[in-house]
Amino acid sequence: MNYLQFDRERPLDLILLGRVAIDFNPLDYFKTLAQSETFKKYVGGSPANIAVGLSRLGKKCGFFARVSDDRFGDYVTEYFDNEGIDTSRIRRCENGEKLGLTFTEILSENESSILMYRNDIADLQLDVQDIDEAYIKQGKALLISGTALAASPSREAALKAVAIAKRTHTPVFFDIDYRPYNWKNSDEIAIYYSMVAAQSDVILGSREEYDLTEALIEPGRTDAQTAVYWQGRGAKIVVIKHGKQGSTAYTCDGNSYSIKPFPVKALKSFGGGDGYASAFLYGLFEGWEMMDCLELGSASASLLVASHGCSADMPSVEKVRAFIAQCKKEYGEMVARS
Amino acid sequence: MNYLQFDRERPLDLILLGRVAIDFNPLDYFKTLAQSETFKKYVGGSPANIAVGLSRLGKKCGFFARVSDDRFGDYVTEYFDNEGIDTSRIRRCENGEKLGLTFTEILSENESSILMYRNDIADLQLDVQDIDEAYIKQGKALLISGTALAASPSREAALKAVAIAKRTHTPVFFDIDYRPYNWKNSDEIAIYYSMVAAQSDVILGSREEYDLTEALIEPGRTDAQTAVYWQGRGAKIVVIKHGKQGSTAYTCDGNSYSIKPFPVKALKSFGGGDGYASAFLYGLFEGWEMMDCLELGSASASLLVASHGCSADMPSVEKVRAFIAQCKKEYGEMVARS
Amino acid sequence: MNYLQFDRERPLDLILLGRVAIDFNPLDYFKTLAQSETFKKYVGGSPANIAVGLSRLGKKCGFFARVSDDRFGDYVTEYFDNEGIDTSRIRRCENGEKLGLTFTEILSENESSILMYRNDIADLQLDVQDIDEAYIKQGKALLISGTALAASPSREAALKAVAIAKRTHTPVFFDIDYRPYNWKNSDEIAIYYSMVAAQSDVILGSREEYDLTEALIEPGRTDAQTAVYWQGRGAKIVVIKHGKQGSTAYTCDGNSYSIKPFPVKALKSFGGGDGYASAFLYGLFEGWEMMDCLELGSASASLLVASHGCSADMPSVEKVRAFIAQCKKEYGEMVARS
Amino acid sequence: MNYLQFDRERPLDLILLGRVAIDFNPLDYFKTLAQSETFKKYVGGSPANIAVGLSRLGKKCGFFARVSDDRFGDYVTEYFDNEGIDTSRIRRCENGEKLGLTFTEILSENESSILMYRNDIADLQLDVQDIDEAYIKQGKALLISGTALAASPSREAALKAVAIAKRTHTPVFFDIDYRPYNWKNSDEIAIYYSMVAAQSDVILGSREEYDLTEALIEPGRTDAQTAVYWQGRGAKIVVIKHGKQGSTAYTCDGNSYSIKPFPVKALKSFGGGDGYASAFLYGLFEGWEMMDCLELGSASASLLVASHGCSADMPSVEKVRAFIAQCKKEYGEMVARS
């Protein structure tokens, strides 16, 4: 069943709105960040990773963003160009704001932490002036990264994009993507997450992220209650993630579909979510069955946590499929489907 | 017909959220502000005026506000206490923010302008921490002044209050109360006005204010289209004002009721809206017919524009009724209703 | 003896740098500010008062200032024009900053307090770009009001003006004029006051103000030590005020001259210092003996505390002289000199 | 001749005030910053490098600084501890300010550029509260890095430290260390540089840096004029650098001493100045002849530009001496002295 109707005439598959940043991952890992001495740089930021992921899967993406007016701004823009992402709506900051940086500490395969540079940050300078209806009408769907809601003026730029998406019948995907930085308090989080969730067709988040979203409405919901509530506000698909326990997609016809992670030797504990999102959304655009969407998402997630980078290691369809085939051969057909 | 159900058990009639300020109106008026030399000070600010108005009409009001931690903060708090308004949720600012000031230029009875002091302003410091469910549950209704949405953290405080009101089945009144100060751009206005309007039971505004509210949804609506749209989102009563041409209340049963101003010799061109709102809402709380609500509102508005002050000249029920009776005697029963 | 040499070719007597503001003094005084209901507006701010005072005494003044871009900015500029003060270097603010306001509480003739509006304030927006050598070279002397040092960018504008004054052999007068507003801590006060004092030819201040100035150099000095120290840095005249006990001018030839207040029925406890400064500096420009300068200053101070306004009540030479003559007739020739 | 008298009783040789930061230098250099993929991290920031340099030469340093309250703050503090630098006056920031980052682009041995992260920066949060007389009295000298003057509150902290140094007879070294970041305009630079230069015993800067310092006093001076002027204000030694043409120390007895760079194969074009300063100041503390101070400084500078890091490659006395000896053997005794 197709839960969403995409306008096939529109040239872009997905327009993403949110941050582009740079990751510095240690090459001498399994040490503290203070001890790690050499770092490899990657384009990062959750929506940037998803855009690269979808592009490598063959989908055409556009991006609303602000980047720094310096060599790092050049770097990420050129990287997007090389990946085939349309950068016509990526603008430079005008007051010296800098691109976000994420320095990763990889203590072990299960323990990672990050040190973020997000003061006076480029991505949150996205402005209502940057958002135009003409561009949104070129996209089959719009993805809002929740981090874009953390502060003005990016917050209002995102809310304007959602308003225009509704007016132009463009499905809205909401990747809650909670990051504690830049938010002032939990009430703000609840207010703005719930505002976008109520206007979204597809919502992706962890249980903790839904709890943040629902804090002013009704705390303590079960997954099923969460799904019913947001479907009552218009959502077609509500995906709720539980880390290593797997995730479930609740569809507006009352069904639910669950997937587990694929077995893999992890190198780091992050990046999986962006692999998941890009591959899952790829399936949606292709009109696949929900279980197939989830399987591709879960396999991509597993590949990502086993890699050193995020954007740089986003796989092709062939690579994910080969990985799934190999896992099934090794562990059985139901390896992730439980 | 009663469009709204109030919980008669709740001790406060209306809890208002918004600004308390000070007006300085010239005593030597019909001059430019530069030429006017002596000024009389009044408690002001649209929601403050409405609170005083409703109190004088016999209703019990509470108020969520931040005021300055100085003698002007003392002044407005004591004034509210004297008027019988509950000031338990009026908190002092902690970082030197000052109470808003409005200096009025009265050039003629038709030409007024204002010079506002609203930099680093006390009222916009209202914070999500200031808003508590226990208090909202004591009010039969909650009134949000649109000016409170102009900037953070007051913006989120107002949105939190609305969220709690919805959760606690407290009717929400939205007085759009547009002031150009403090807003950054028209998209912001459209985003936040529409967000509160979509959750309100009663909306009060001028045609221009509805245009601002609807700018990202569908510009150029007629009054009837506006009423139908917001009633579709849950509003029971949509009041649209057209200045001297009068105003119309559209009710959710598909009816509409119009009123014109009462004839009066104006001294100034402001303050009428707050007299209107307080008397109209008084009628709603009393369960009156819509036309009677509107007539009281229109009569109070006329009394206000003929007075030097705003809060200080809010009339008692007896005074408005006497004025209506006198107008009807002089100009005929249908003086404002035609 | 002439302690200062003025370049008689220069068309302006004094160029002042600092704040122009508006005073609102209650007409129904001897009440708290909350109780006072009617206010009279005056041009105010210490250097503005001194400029008006000097103009009325027949001297030509210029002014470096920023004022608000609104009707209050019009008001003060027009007022200066009418008083004959050159306003060519008074610029409007560009980001909505407002003119400072001072609301006065007059509880009794000895107890006054003020409530100041100085958030996002126009005068502290004076910028290094506003200061030009061509103008400074037109003035026989430059007066820096210490309040201009309280924050950037006005702080650097004042320091630049001093640097140019030194380069162009323009005597610098420093009116310490301490106001607690806008300063962040006492170290900042000590740093910037001492920086300007060390480059000044004439310094005017109260004992408390010199203590603030010397806090990082050597706290606890006597008046004589203070005078010797600043004269060692180049000062020609050091005036130290002790309120009702009178004041003393220490000159660089090792002499000192003291004056007491003239007997007068005070209405308020402020404004005297500005009357003092303008009349004292008038004497300096005229090349008078030090005692005559002080006597005129003290008499003007007494006239001011007996008046309702400050700028509006600055006296002419004739008026001060008549007042001195009358006091001497009534109380004896040495009434203030003893 | 000893131009400076140090109090041998004081336990610390030099107390430095300024920034501690982190450098990320590319391992795959001779590429653009966008193309470089791997980076090595070093403790950086000019005064931090000088402190490490002096420590390795056997001098005991202290440091007034603010660092970030995160793992990078841990990193630099631990690094200082390991180098034997006293970190008792290195405090953590309290509002999320971050340590400065410098990403270096090394295009060739002559072309380097840097991308700095200095928004909301830790080092400029140094506050007057952080500066205490007790500590300054423990240092034989105080070094102010000019970058600390770029913005408040660090600016006032530096000015307070200078005031206390004067009061406690602690010689002041001023390393102008101009960085365009964080300064608002050239007048500010001139005001604050000249303010500290006028109170300094030793000034170190390039010709361009002295031009910035003198812009409001007298532009266009020769080196000799510059030296005479600042010696007239109290400086004992004025060092003026001309890059590859070498540098000259002007002493207050009217002499001057010049040195040239040692021949070396450069890897990068920065870091030399910090090697120079640390070794030159080492010579001063040792009471060496001026030419010997300069020779050690110049040799250390040459070693630094041939190294990948800055702080990490600061040499020991033995290493610099061995390098000098080898150069003299190869190129002749006067290799740098010509």
Automatic annotation (TrEMBL), chains A, B, C, D:
Its EC number(s): 2.7.1.92
| InterPro entries for this protein | Carboh/pur_kinase_PfkB_CS, DKG_kinase_firmi, Myo_inos_IolC, Myo_inos_IolC-like_sf, PfkB_Carbo_kinase, PfkB_dom, Ribokinase-like
Keywords tagged on the record: ATP-binding, Kinase, Nucleotide-binding, Transferase
Domain (Carbohydrate kinase PfkB) spans: 14-315
Question: What's a Gene Ontology MF term here?
Answer: ATP binding
Could you tell me the Gene Ontology terms of the biological process aspect for this record? inositol catabolic process
Quote the catalytic activity from the record: 5-dehydro-2-deoxy-D-gluconate + ATP = 6-phospho-5-dehydro-2-deoxy-D-gluconate + ADP + H(+)
- Main role? Catalyzes the phosphorylation of 5-dehydro-2-deoxy-D-gluconate (2-deoxy-5-keto-D-gluconate or DKG) to 6-phospho-5-dehydro-2-deoxy-D-gluconate (DKGP).
Write down the HAMAP family for this protein, in alphabetical order.
Answer: IolC
Xref: PANTHER family? 5-DEHYDRO-2-DEOXYGLUCONOKINASE, HEXOKINASE FAMILY MEMBER
Q: What is this protein called?
A: 5-dehydro-2-deoxygluconokinase
Organism the protein comes from: Luoshenia tenuis
User: Could you tell me the gene encoding this protein?
Assistant: iolC
